Amino acid sequence: MVRHIVMWTLKEEVDGVTAKENAVKMKGMLEALKGRIEGLRDIAVSMEILGGEPCCDILLCSDHDDAAALDHYQSHPEHQACVAFIKGVVNSRKAVDFVM
User: Fold this and answer.
1) What is the pLDDT of residues 50-82, one digit of tens each?
2) How far apart are CA 40 and CA 62, in angstroms?
3) Which domain holds residue 91?
4) How far does Cα 12 stand from its chain's mean position?
5) What DSSP string runs through 9-26?
6) What angle do CA 53, 30, 77 make, to 5 degrees?
7) What sign results for the dihedral spanned by CA atoms 80, 48, 62, 27?
8) Mean of the per-residue pLDDT values for the chain?
9) Could you give the CA distance from residue 43 to residue 74 in angstroms, rounded to a whole number?
10) Structural domain count, the chain
11) Which of 4, 10, 27, 28 has the fewest CB atoms within 10 Å distance of its CB?
């Protein structure tokens, strides 16, 4: 199994929409992928980060059957629709993938 963790900081405002509002939209979009992409075992998204370095506004943790399943997830059209939105509201992104 491969775990995929992504941490984002968001722009304070984009087109009159606050970072918090964009985080809520991101959370909903990403959580909606559960059960829709083969090989995606689980996905969790949180805006309630208790601490850590670097700090972030929103965090994703997803589990995939294997590296091929993670690649499939990342190139899947439904995930790419999320990516298109996220790129417009994100200030920075950090990610790590590891085998469990």
Assistant:
1) 987 778 999 999 999 999 999 999 999 999 999
2) 7
3) 2-99
4) 18
5) EE-SEETTEEHHHHHHHH
6) 120
7) negative
8) 97
9) 13
10) 1
11) 28
Residues comprising the chain, all counted: 100
- What pLDDT score was predicted for residue 51? 81
The two tokens of residue 20 are 């918090």
One-letter amino acid of 100: M
Calpha distance 31→42 (Å, rounded): 9
Whole-number Å distance between alpha carbons of 61 and 56: 13
Scan for tokens 């199994």, then name that residue. 1
Helix or strand holding residue 8 (H, E): strand 2-10
Task: Give bridge partners of residue 95 from the DSSP assignment.
Answer: 6
Dump pLDDT digits (tens) for 13-28. Answer: 999 999 999 999 999 9
pTM of the model: 0.94
Question: What pLDDT does 24 receive?
Answer: 98
CATH no. for residue 70? 3.30.70.100
